[in-house]
Every structure is written in C-alpha cells, then in structure tokens.
Design a protein that fits this description.
405 residues; Rossmann fold; 2 domains; six-stranded mixed beta sheet; binds pyridoxal-5'-phosphate; binds zinc ion
Length: 405
C-alpha cells in the first residue's frame, strides 16, 4: 500500500489512514493522499498496458488490500456514433457502469470500502441510501459475512434497488424523511454503535470509484476532453477527476479532462452554488426529481465537487425531468443502452451543452452511465403503455403488424 495520510479538503489537517475518521474537526471531509513517487517507481508500464481493466488492476492506487470482490469494474466504454451524430457530438462515448455486479458504479467503491472495513476489523457496516449504495453495500457485506444496516427514505427508493437490499439480507430501516436526513441519522448511529460507515463521506470508498478514470484512460488510450457525470452527493465526479489527476501525477499523461456535473432542476444545489459564485452551499431543502439516485439537496461532498469542477475548468448544469426521461429513451432506442433516469441526466446535460455551444463538435466526450435501467422499471412502464393483446389468430396478428409497418 502506498497510502500515506488523510488530509482535510478544507483546512489541510492530517490524519492517519488507520484512524476511523470521516470528517475533520472543522467539519469538512477527508481525502486520501499517496506516495506518488513510490507508485511511479513501482509501476510496470508494460504489464500495466497489457492487463485488462478491473478495479483491482489499479491496486497500487488503492488504500486497502483486496479482501472482498464480485468482479467489479472493467465496464465497457461504448463509442456511440449514431447518437453522437444526432447530438452534434460525434466523438461520444458512454461508460456503462450498469454492467457492474449490482448494476451501478457504487460497486467500485464498495469492493474497496468493505475491504477496508475488514482490514480495520469491523463486523458491521451501514449506509444511508437513495437505493444503489444500499444495494451495493448489502451485496459486498453478504459476501464478506458482515452485518449490514441500510437507512432509506421511506417510499422513495426504486423497486429494483429495494429488492436488492432485501435479498442480500441487509437490515433495511426505512425512515420517514428524505436522504439528507437519513444520512445525518446514520452518521450518528455509526459513531455511537461502532459500525463502519460506507456513505461517500468515507474517503476510502471514493478511492475505488476513481478507477472509472483509470479505465477510461486505458480503454481510450488517452484522456478525453470532457467527462459528463450526474451529480447527487458529488462524490463520484470528484473521484473521477482525482483519478485523472493521479494519472498525471505518476507521469502517464499530461492531460486532465474538463469535468461537467449534471443535476436535476428540482435538486440542483451545486448548480445554484456555482451560479451564485457562493462560498457556502446553496442548499435545496425539498429536492424533487424522477431521477431518485440524484434526489439530493445537501450534497455532503459539495466542496470536493466544486474543486473538481473549478480546477478542471468545467461547469454544472440542470436538466428537467422531462429532458432526463427523453434522454433515457433515446439512449435505449438509438444505442441499445438502458440506464436508470439519474444516469440519463448526463446525456440530457450533454445535449444542452452542445446547444449552448459549451461542448464543441471535435471534442471527445465521455458520458458516465451510472446505473442500470432495470433498477427502476416503473419509470418506463408508466410512460410507455403496453399494447392491447391480440387474439391467437393469424389474420388478427397480421392486421396488427401491418398497422405497425
Ligand atoms: C449514486 C448515484 C449517482 C450520484 O453519485 P454521487 O457520487 O452521489 O454524486 C448518480 N447516479 C446513480 C445511478 C447513482 O447510483
Ligand atoms: Zn479541516
């Protein structure tokens, strides 16, 4: 392990990577810092180039030894020519994170986070979740033989994600409140009860997620110009940016992409904060959007998010629920990629960015498709109705087909 220390992103205070600490005395979150010179010296570039991408291929850049895995990472980077041409962004790629073991990028964080929990000697883990975090943590806890508690906003979690948490045997605790409240409750529970917390306030979890950047670099053979990411708590956009910064740090590239965050109009605190040019977070008290995975009004990683966006020369934009659902449908119809609404926000955002002249034709753009569409099938079945049944009679069947041709 080349991990050196934990550093507060606000005041620079330092902690040991063996401390169980999620925040600094100043209240801000921590980031993991490595000995990059050591990593550089030990990196075998030839071997690195030949090994196919998975999360643990990048173990030198990770803070814990591999203890629990379900084969996460190695998701395809799909060139989308037809869709790209429709959107006037011909060098468009989709990184399809829905192909992870539980169907979202959260698995990259959890394989590392739960491995760290085992290393620290914990027997219990917990999280608050809009759905995917709980599905992922429940799976990795099951595989590690740990107890798992998940706190969910009651009635606001997509059916597929809830089914996952239940079948993997997590203790599901629905709370009559939104995600932001669930998170403050679980933070206190973990502090009091000796349970390891695996929300994105946990600095080690985000380390797993930065492998998205390493894989994009591996698969594309270079750094793209622009990365478009849906933003909820804002941990993932920071993790991806950090991954690219580290590639530069160890001398594999000189480039860093521009990071663009996309939020839903009804849950857009990061966009508001950027527009206001504010030093404090512009909280959205009652976040609402069909994209439940990003229905967050008080993103805990807001400082990290703003840093990734500002230092990379990026931006953040909002899209409406209608734009999100149309993007979800077009991605499925034109490219055969079925994502959940939050993931479609990145594509909806790209469409807007092109329209506003923010993204130009010759740019290589990677949209992160964060989660699988089957997580939330009711969004589709409530929008697109099933045709009336046809009697089992060839004349009737041909009549139906002709009306459709
Ligand atoms: C968690 C999640 C997000 C948001 O990621 P943050 O790190 O919270 O910004 C977006 N899409 C999906 C599908 C998710 O599960
Ligand atoms: Zn601090």
């Amino acid at each position: 392990m080349y991990v050196e220390r934990l550093v507060c992103v606000n005041c620079g205070n330092e902690f040991s990577p063996d401390d169980v600490v999620y925040e600094c005395r100043c209240g801000s979150l921590l980031d993991v810092v490595y000995d990059y010179e050591e990593i550089k010296d030990h990196l075998d570039i030839q071997k690195f180039r030949k090994t196919p991408p998975t999360v643990w291929k990048y173990a030198d850049f990770l803070p814990a030894p591999k203890k629990v895995s379900l084969g996460e990472g190695g998701t395809p980077l799909l060139p989308c020519k037809r869709l790209g041409e429709m959107l006037s962004a011909p060098s468009l790629y989709i990184k399809n994170e829905g192909q992870n073991p539980t169907g979202s990028f959260k698995d990259r964080g959890m394989t590392v986070g739960v491995s760290k929990a085992l290393t620290l000697g914990f027997g219990m883990v917990a999280c608050a979740s809009t759905g995917n975090t709980s599905a992922s943590l429940a799976a990795y806890a099951a595989r590690a033989g740990m107890r798992c508690f998940v706190f969910l906003p009651a009635g606001k979690v997509a059916a597929g994600k809830l089914a996952q948490a239940l079948i993997y045997g997590a203790e599901v605790i629905p709370i009559d409140a939104n995600f932001d409240v669930c998170l403050s409750i679980v933070r206190e529970v973990c502090r009091e009860a000796g349970i390891y917390l695996l929300n994105s306030v946990n600095p080690f979890r985000l380390e797993g997620q930065k492998t998205i950047a390493f894989e994009i670099f591996d698969q594309l053979g270079r750094v793209p110009d622009t990365i478009v990411v849906p933003v909820g708590n804002g941990g993932n956009i920071f993790a991806i940016w950090k991954g690219f910064m580290e590639l530069r740090e160890v001398g594999l590239t000189d480039e860093v992409p521009r990071m663009i965050g996309v939020q839903a109009e009804g849950a857009n605190p990061i966009v508001r904060t950027l527009v206001a040019g504010s030093r404090e977070l512009e909280v959205v008290e009652r976040p609402e959007t069909v994209a439940t995975a990003i229905r967050i009004g008080r993103p805990v990683n807001w400082m990290k998010t703003l840093r990734a966006i500002r230092e990379s020369g990026g931006t953040a934009i909002s899209v409406s629920d209608d734009e999100i659902l149309r993007a979800q449908e077009i991605l499925a119809r034109v490219e055969g990629i079925f994502v959940e609404p939050a993931s479609a926000a990145s594509l909806a955002g790209l469409k807007k960015l092109v329209f506003e002249g923010e993204v130009e034709k010759d740019e290589t753009v990677v949209c992160i498709a964060t989660g699988h569409g089957l997580k939330d099938p009711s969004v589709v079945t409530s929008r697109i109705s099933l045709p009336e049944p046809v009697p089992p009679n060839m004349d009737e069947v041909f009549r139906r087909i002709r009306t459709r041709m």
